[in-house]
Specification:
Chain A: One of its GO terms (molecular function) is metal ion binding. The complex is a heterodimer of chains A (188) and B (151). Chain A has 5 helices and 16 strands. Chain A has 188 residues and is α/β, with parallel strands linked by helices. Chain A is globular and about 45 Å long. By secondary structure, chain B is mostly beta strands. Chain B is built from no helices and 11 strands. The chains are: A alpha/beta (188), B mainly beta (151).
Chain lengths: 188, 151
Amino acid sequence: MKLFNHFAAVGFSNTYLVGGDSGGEALLIDPGVMDVSLLELIEKNSYYIRYILITHSHWNHFGGVNTLLKIYDAQVYSARNNLEEIPSMELKEGTYKFSSMEIEVIPILGHSDDSLVFRIGNFFFTGDVLSAGRTGTAPDKISRDTLFLELEEKLFTRDPHGILLPGHGPPTTIKAETQLYQKYEKHR
Amino acid sequence: MNLKAPGLIFEGLDLRGKRFINCYFHHTLWKNCRFDNSRFQMCFFDDSVITNCHFLKVNMLQCVFTMAVLQDTTFRGSDLISVNLNRIKSRHCDFSESDLYYSRFIGSSLKETLFVDCNLKRVDFCLSRMKRISFRYSNSEEAYFQKEHRG
């Protein structure tokens, strides 16, 4: 499996490209923007985008989908059955197979009511629920408490060497975030 | 290079001008090594100890140093874009003349470390302890030092 990161200055968001070692069918996670550099990344590595996974329905995580669908015959997947009129297959908690890749879908609520974390191997694509040193924002105290509880139960219990790939900012590890959370965030 | 080398000790290596992509060096020890003009993309140095190493004019994107100990190490003149330096312990280190755009130093302990003439736009220093730090000629007003910046 090969993993690529694409940073979009618009929205400061990360898009992840995941595919096989020698091209072929690939998936994109959170294409917030579709631009020339993302297209080059896909084409230079001989990938064809067959699946587009969205961690949550905020524009800076799916804004590039319309353009992508004009280029590739791809299927969009998210927690909803549509994303502002873009048809989407609804994902629920569980494990799915995309080409040869097994993907675990882990709903984590609080930042939004449709946030999903995707696990491929030891990589966790966290969207906005957690980034390096920061838990996601939440609209109110109940949502914040929900987010903290969900992170504690569903993410911080995983392999501490798990690698977290957030929607914004640099990567991190479960070990680092668990410690930061216990030291600073939990008591905030 | 696409290496996995957790837990190893590296000493006196000359790795100048190399390219490191998706390398896993967590919990490693680096001593007296040179990485000048190298490129790093999504490499992991978390929990590592890096002593007297030279990362002069390196290009680093989306790399992880969280909880690393950096001593007498220089990153002078480098592009360190979106690098995770949360909870590092840095002493006698030099990031001068570097572009640190969108990098994070949350909860770090920074002593006698230089950030002279750096681009600090969107760099997050929240909850860091600092002693004898210089931000001279840097745009420190564009960095974050308090948690309230959270959007």
